[in-house]
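Hey L., structure's done. Input below.
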Amino acid sequence: MANERIRKLLVLLAILVGLRFVVLPWIESQSATRDEVSVLTKRLDRSQSLLANEELIKKTDQYLTNSLRGVRSRFPSHGSVDSFKLEMQPKIGEVAQLNGMTINLFTWVLDGEVKDAGLRFVRTRVQLTGSLAQLAAFQGQLEGDMPNVFIREIGIAGNSAGVMPGDVLGTLTLTADLYFRSNAAAPTKRM
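Output:
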């Protein structure tokens, strides 16, 4: 009887050892395999979705490329800040001259960079004299002809009564940022 009891206990011990060292690791490996299969299935589903929408993705990419090209064309490309300044100062002078205005002061105030956009900018302060109609025409033409110009501050000084008819001379003080793309910082094509 004692031998049979010991034998049953040994069989039970063998079963428990088998469960602990064979069955439990096998179950854990099955769980890990199931998780891997689940991850791979999700990847496959995403890949199939991409393949199914390939034409739409290509059209969207082409649309975004064209839109980006349009936005980037707004900002001229230059090799250096100095070359950009040398090009822009006469252009601003031409706009003032076309509107019959006199430039009293033209100074470059600041050079900067917008790294996330791949743009650089220069800030200028310009003081001009002309009639109020000329001042308004200058500002409109400047912003219309040069889409890379963003006016930060503008001030108009005229007669002391505060009423400024179009033929009264006034002084326009303008602070503007002129943005451009640096040739050295051209963005790479995205994949």
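The longest strand covers residues 169-182. The helical segments are 2-52, 54-73, 81-98, 132-145.

-- N.
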